[in-house]
Amino acid sequence: MAAPPGAERAPRRWLTRERAAPVVAGIAILLIWEIAVRSLLPSFVATPTGIVRAIPSTMGTWAFWTDVAVTLSAIVQGVVIGSAAGILVGVAMGRVREIDWFLSTYIRALYALPLIALVPLVILWVGYQPEARLIIVIISVFLPVAVTTADGTRAISKDYLDVGQMFGARTHNVWFGIALPSALPFIIAGIELGFARGITNAIAVEVLASVPGMGMSVFTKSNELNENASLVYVVCLAIFAVSVRALMIRSRRWLAPWYSR
Amino acid sequence: MTESAQARLVVENACLRYGALDVLAGLNLTVGSTEIVSIVGPSGCGKTTLLRCVGGLNQLNGGTIHIDGQRVEKPLPSVSMVFQHFGLFPWKSLWSNIAYGLKLRHRPKDEIASRVAEAIELVGLKGFEQSYPHQLSGGMQQRAGLARALVMEPKLLLMDEPFSAIDAQTREQLQFEMLRIWDRRPTAMMFVTHAIDEAVLMGDRVVVLAGRPAHVRAVREVNLPRPRDRSVVSSPEFIKLREQVWHDLFDQPGGTQARVQ
After folding, report:
1. B251 to chain A nearest CA, in Å?
2. Which of B:128-167 have CB within 8 Å of A?
3. Fold observed for domain B7-78+155-260
4. Is A176 part of any domain?
5. What residues does each domain of chain B span?
6. Predicted interface score ipTM higher than 0.85
7. With a threshold of 0.90, does the pTM exceed it?
8. What integer pLDDT is reported at residue B2 of this predicted model?
9. Mean pLDDT of B150-176
């Protein structure tokens, strides 16, 4: 008889060389940075210790947390809306050849395009408003999710389709009961990519359209020669991006445990 | 066909061609209401195609297939299939995989629960309801595939080389269990296999197909007593039948043509 689920994993050492490597590299970079700035550059240029010293004065303000709230909530909203739309359109493209014929060329062309190019256009539509950021994030997520969902739902195993047909699955059962779950690993990969693009483009819109948020503050602080404060924002964004990636890897293991085997 | 005199499945003059390729050419076959008919033939001879046509997964170009007088043009609810590669959905637990057909047919919840529990018991998977297919051996996955078919209480069970992807020892075990299950719930069965032993062991009749196009080369009545257990395999009748089927398969008027191809 097979082992009960989850029992097969052997206990692993927490500290491995693989895990230590990025920490060692990080410390080395910070050291070189600190020494190089202190010995070669003027005092307003950011240093690692300077960033740490700037944390209380930066993160201790309402303005900081308002920036974090508006930017991150716009990104999360955009990811939710963009993913939902991307999944629906992607399943339709993956399962109905005719829809794929009509849409595929344009969605793939937009997917390959740097969305920054669309920012001026979106500003024309909605003005210099926070909605511009949301719209760009939605598109940033929609495109990769639509493309990966279409590819994933098109490539479902014929065995699954036979089973569905044999046991009486109708079209909507095939779409949402077979195609969608079997494409989950693809969809999660698309959302992960969309998230990364969404973060990048949200910041870009804030800068280009002067929409208040973390990206705009990175620039205003920098223009005020407060580079250390500016980099506190950057570090927070980096932490957010890394957490999102970790969350995606977790959710793939949780939602599609059969895939990584 | 003695006590199971009235035919459950009648295939008349079945013809199927893909372009210039004749797959089935005027094939006739009947299966009684509690009869097991084994279908053997060289690989690529069209035996699986014939089974898929009976299941309604493929369409004939000519001739008819009737099950209990009803013409097969799409999969009928009274027919279940067990697939060569199991076809379990990896994102569903064993329980949900087995309940799939009943759920698609919107059976009441408590009826599903009791029928699924019974089927799980029957195939010996009790305690693994919440396991996922990737956590189980091939043999156990096919037990689940069998339970998923049996839970529908089919009038005709189609077996598409069900044990060919399973290791030899487990295969033997499953063959006898299949016989035991059939003894408890006799039903009409079409058992496609390329193993001569298996064909003789399971069948009331062995139909030897030759291709291409597929036609019936020989039909052998198997008068081995039921219930059949391991002692059958060493009986002289079994050995004699196995030899006959072997010769039906490999001796042909055209000399060694089949082997050379």
Report:
1. 34
2. 128, 130-137, 140, 148, 152
3. Rossmann fold (3.40.50)
4. yes
5. 7-78+155-260, 88-153
6. yes
7. no
8. 43
9. 93
